[in-house]
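Hi V.,

Quick status before I head out on leave. The structure for the redesign project is tokenized and pasted below; the design run finished overnight.
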């Protein structure tokens, strides 16, 4: 935890204006379905909406809008109050709209939920109950752009909820160019993966497409393309043998046949040919003292299914997919393909089945542990030989060089894309860069832990949900996550007094 625990995400460079603003907003009618319309034409009336406090601030790569709003007056039936926060550069005429705020009567809330939700999925829509003050916080963020440096925040009223509102009168409530500058830091966290006490086991793998005479099992090293295919196996073995940091433990070969011909015969043929290859490699002394495990698997239906799924230029492809996915025996599948999808089967025989008659091989080897200095060399030449813990210890050396640190961690992620620890770290780095969606995707792969809650809270903050952010960080604090207390203090700087 020595690096990146307390990294400064950014300073907020924005103005804060606190104080009550009474905003006269036109009371408006949203068109209801014909069966629910009021008989009497509704006339817009002014409505005083109180902005108790407001914050407009720049945080990292985002501009954050935070408002505390109170609606005291009752909203007449069949009517709504609609306000749109707008960030505008009044000099250069740039502007961006934040999601709408709907304050609804009972019927209008029902109408919104039924008919308008899909049109305004990010809007705040709340029902105002008669005689009860409605107070709520509005928090949204948007990606910062240079033109926003001199922007102001306006609340714009509209006289209808349609896509082309006619009335756009407005009031300015905050600016990004003020003197009061609150500072907010974000404290994303990560965990150092434990040192792996087990031996590091790695493998070099590939496929060879050996040629045999019809129904024969003898390996003929000079037959057709066999010189090239056999050399693939030797090259993989030699590449591993040359690495002084590793010890080869065994060679595994798995033989497959194509799905044409009787299943039983193909299984026996693949077993005998795979055993013949094992004997050939042993006699060729591919590597002294290395055990060779060989197994024939018969017809290669798995690779055929994968090929059908990934290639769309196959005649009668959907029919072939349906046949290969059913529960019949292999021989019955072949018969169906021949008779019910003959054009597609002919294509497979010529173009695909030769690829399915293959030998997959894996050179299994173990790797010794490395010091930090050695890890640097190995990282540049063969990073797969490093454990995740070794990569973290190397990255920690560059904790003060953010781009180098990120580059090392990016490589670790490519090597261990589903590991919980590296995904937690990648979420941390994404938060630092203000990339909320990227961080959220990484967190989906993180096992449940307090640190995950901490980073989920920061993602919620970057996405504009301060209440959720506080809840998640508070959960992390209860479990003793380092930085959670400070993060809650930072959120207080944006929290509005009640």
């Amino acid at each position: 935890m020595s690096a990146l625990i307390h990294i400064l995400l950014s300073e907020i460079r924005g103005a804060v204006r606190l104080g009550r603003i009474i905003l006269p907003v036109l009371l408006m009618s949203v068109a209801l379905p014909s069966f629910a319309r009021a008989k009497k034409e509704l006339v817009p009336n002014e409505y005083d909406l109180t902005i108790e406090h407001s914050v407009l601030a720049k945080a990292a790569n985002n501009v954050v809008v935070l408002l505390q709003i109170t609606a005291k007056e009752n909203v007449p039936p069949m009517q709504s109050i609609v306000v749109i926060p707008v960030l505008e550069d009044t000099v250069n005429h740039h502007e961006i709209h934040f999601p709408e705020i709907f304050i609804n009567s009972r019927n209008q809330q029902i109408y919104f939920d039924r008919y308008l939700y899909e049109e305004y999925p990010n809007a705040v829509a709340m029902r105002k109950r008669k005689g009860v003050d409605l107070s709520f916080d509005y928090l949204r963020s948007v990606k910062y752009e240079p033109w926003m440096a001199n922007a102001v925040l306006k609340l714009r009223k509209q006289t209808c909820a349609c896509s082309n509102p006619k009335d756009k009168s407005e009031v300015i409530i905050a600016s990004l160019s003020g003197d009061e500058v609150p500072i907010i830091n974000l404290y994303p966290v990560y965990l150092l993966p434990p040192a792996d006490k087990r031996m590091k086991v790695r493998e070099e793998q590939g496929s060879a497409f050996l040629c045999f005479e019809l129904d024969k099992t003898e390996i003929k090293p000079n037959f057709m393309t066999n010189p090239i295919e056999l050399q693939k196996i030797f090259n993989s073995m030699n590449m591993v043998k040359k690495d002084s940091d590793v010890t080869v433990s065994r060679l595994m070969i798995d033989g497959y046949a194509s799905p044409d011909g009787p299943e039983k015969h193909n299984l026996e043929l693949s077993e005998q040919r795979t055993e013949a290859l094992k004997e050939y490699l042993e006699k060729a002394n591919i590597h002294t003292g290395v055990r060779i495990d060989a197994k024939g698997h018969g017809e290669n239906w798995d690779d055929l299914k994968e090929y059908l799924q990934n290639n769309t230029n196959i005649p009668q492809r959907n029919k072939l997919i349906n046949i290969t996915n059913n529960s019949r025996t292999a021989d019955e599948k072949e018969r169906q393909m021949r008779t019910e999808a003959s054009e597609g089967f002919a294509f497979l025989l010529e173009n695909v089945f030769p690829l399915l008659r293959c030998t997959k091989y894996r050179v299994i080897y173990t790797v010794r542990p490395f010091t930090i200095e050695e890890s640097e060399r190995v990282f540049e030449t063969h990073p797969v030989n490093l454990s995740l813990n070794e990569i973290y210890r190397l990255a920690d050396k560059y904790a003060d060089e953010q781009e180098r640190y990120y580059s090392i961690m990016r490589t670790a992620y490519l090597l261990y894309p589903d590991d919980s620890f590296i995904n937690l770290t990648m979420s941390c780095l994404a938060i630092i860069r203000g990339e909320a969606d990227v961080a959220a995707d990484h967190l989906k792969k993180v096992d449940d832990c307090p640190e995950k809650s901490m980073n989920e809270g920061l993602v919620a903050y970057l996405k504009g949900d301060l209440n959720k952010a506080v809840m998640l960080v508070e959960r992390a604090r209860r479990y003793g996550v380092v930085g959670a207390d400070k993060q809650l203090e930072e959120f207080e700087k944006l929290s509005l007094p009640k």
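Above is the designed sequence. The chain has three domains: 16-175, 201-238+246-365, 387-494.

G. will cover questions while I'm gone.

Best,
W.
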